[in-house]
Amino acid sequence: MNSDEAIAVEHLSKEFRIPHDRKVTMYEHIVGILKGGKYSYELFQALDDVSFTVRRGETFGVIGPNGSGKSTLLKILAGVLYPDSGRVQVNGKIAPFLELGVGFQPDLTAKENIFLYGSIMGLTRKEIGKRYDEILDFAELRRFENMKLKNFSSGMAVRLAFATAIQTDPDILLVDEVLAVGDEAFQRKCSEKIEEIRRQGKTIIIVSHALGTVQELCERCMLLKNGRVLSSGETGKVVEEYLRISAAGS
């Protein structure tokens, strides 16, 4: 891994076992167990020999249709999932902002979740305390700091998660569709914060279906389809390739 690289991914692959929808007979179930689940599951190749690098201070986009492996890739980068094969090298502290629920506990209050997530990210209680008010103010959740997360709306939860993640002072920020959740005002607020983080020289990886946002924020991006890299490079060219493929498939 070169010193100017924040992330280096080599030949990454990941499979999932998907249960069959149809019911199986007892005989098929027993035979399936003896043969390693042949009749009970099928294999889904979420990622297939994915390789790429992200430079320090770069904002890198990942695009592609639903089911192409984008979220699986971010979860592996964040350490939430492990690959079946391949290697991931990370140079710096990662703060993942993935789907709702990752890193946050529904039975804890907003306040408790802020301190829990901060401690997981290596901050002391004193450091979290100094940033606590800013987190609540950014998320606009001051009135709800003692409410359990399970009683939050999805929009409230995503505001809390994003506001907390950006206050942990990461070297690398992983963002999965944050600009597709919440109201328009909060989306604009997130865009401005991401731009501020970019200016600080942090590394950001963004997964998004909002191609305009990817073109605005990302110098380079990568196109995934069916778990494989179809294109990688300058954002405008990769987006054009995605639009061409999408039009051909429609």
Q: Could you provide a short overview of the structure?
A:
With 250 residues, the chain is of the alpha/beta class. Helices cover 38% and strands 27% of the residues.
Describe the structure.
The protein has 250 residues and is an alpha/beta fold. The protein folds into two domains: 5-92 and 171-249, 3-Layer(aba) Sandwich (Rossmann fold), CATH 3.40.50.300; 105-169. The chain is built from eight helices and nine strands. It has helices at 26-34, 70-78, 110-120, 125-139, 154-165, 184-199, 211-217, 235-249, and strands at residues 5-19, 41-55, 59-63, 85-90, 94-97, 172-176, 203-207, 220-225, 228-234. Helix 6 links the parallel strand 6 and strand 7 (203-207). Helix 3 (110-120) packs across helix 4 (125-139) and helix 3 packs parallel to helix 5 (154-165). The protein is globular and about 55 Å long. The N and C termini lie far apart (40 Å). 35% of the residues are buried. GO terms for molecular function: ABC-type transporter activity; ATP binding; ATP hydrolysis activity. Belongs to the ABC transporter superfamily.
